[in-house]
Amino acid sequence: xxxRLDTLINSLEGLEIITELSQVxxxxxDYHTFSPVLVPKLEGKVGDIVVRPANEEEVLKVAAACAKxxxxxxxxxxxxxxxxxxxxxxxxxxxxxxxxHEIPWVKPGVARVEAGVKxxxxxxxxxxxxxxxxxxxxxxxxxxxxxxxAGGSGGIGSVQYGLLGDRGNILALRVVTVEDEPRIIxxxxxxxxxxxxxxxxxxxxxxxxIPLGPAYPWAEVIVTFDDFMAAVNFGQALGNADGMxxxxxxxxxxxxxxxxxxxxxxxxxxxxPVLLMLAESSLELLPGLVQEYGGxxxxxxxxxxxxxxxxLAEFTWNHTTLHARTVDTSITYLQSMFPANQSLQLVxxxxxxxxxxxxxxxxxxxxxxxxxxxALQLVRYTTEERLNEIIRYHEAQGVFIANPHTYIIEDGGRxxxxxxxxxxKEMVDPYGLMNPGKSKALQLKIHN
Length: 448
Hints:
Blueprint: H1 2-11, E1 16-18, H2 21-26, H3 38-42, E2 49-52, H4 56-69, E3 73-76, E4 93-96, E5 105-107, E6 110-114, H5 119-127, E7 131-133, H6 145-151, H7 158-161, E8 172-176, E9 184-188, E10 204-214, E11 218-225, H8 228-240, E12 246-252, E13 272-279, H9 286-292, E14 296-301, H10 303-306, H11 318-327, E15 331-333, E16 336-337, H12 343-354, E17 358-359, E18 361-367, E19 370-375, E20 378-380, H13 384-396, E21 400-401, H14 419-428
Parallel strand pairs: 2-4, 3-4
Antiparallel strand pairs: 1-2, 5-6, 6-10, 7-10, 8-9, 8-10, 11-13, 11-14, 12-13, 12-18, 15-20, 16-19, 16-21, 17-20, 18-19
């Protein structure tokens, strides 16, 4: 590999290349450390060099060089993923896209952006004309749009707009192929699914078009309940209230707020909090609904104030796990989706069945037109065997688990790779150089 690598580096003269070992190691990592199962499996997995392209022309050069010298290439955004998506299993080039952060245009309802644009930067630009991203992960301050599309699935805003993979939530993707003569392919409409959530194995995303939603003034509210299922039923009722505009409904069992230091004054011990982002125009309707379910509003910030300091969104989705692990590194998590027809009964059963071992954290989102709870439960980890038992028990109850303790796409959320994705993969990456080893369906074709 060394001779090939030296030759590759020489062929990329003029591009920003990082070879310093500690920096390369740092840029070979993500937040897979959330999983005690993944840590030993990915230990010591690092790239050989990092290349930071400034534009699409430089991406084409890197793609051509990697194809010519048969060097693996792993595309990276900000490294905020949790499953080892951007950890290279076979060394090679880490392609860091963060310098590609231009926003060619923003129009009412749609934006065109380069892959390295930070989500917060796009939101800031879009809000100048009254729009914002439809959904963002809790890492929106640092995450890039390309990384979110390649490795994410939904987030804050999904209660209104569903998940990234839903038709219409990505409008176009522009990708560079890794061939002897790399091409630029623009995918539009349903064709974007050939690349969406494919962990960078199906072409290098350079630009995207994404739809925007109206930028409401979002108030932040905490409601607390003495009974967990009252909190869950309130969350469901608010989710079902189509006339009330919301961006976030997060429900937490009473064990979890101990990890939310900045919010502890607003969450009495032993209560079950619900964190909300609600359009200010819908606030007037909230107290009646809260009263109906026996809750109490303990915190409320108008939109103007909510934009300063701590955001409630940063305690939700995967940030919940981050806060908990800051206090107790033995905590890990699950990602679950409940069947729509019996979701609340299952939530109640699992809440009682596992008790303190699996602490319930729900996020409401829209699936096939209905708002349902998904869960990012916090798990007190003991052994991999016990974790697998917990997963199997959930699955036996009909709960879908997107397993965050694997770096194999099929074993995580996808279960199977779409045949269309596989066909596209063979076309855009004939030598199997893109993030190799992350899919069961793909044979490693690297020639050493």
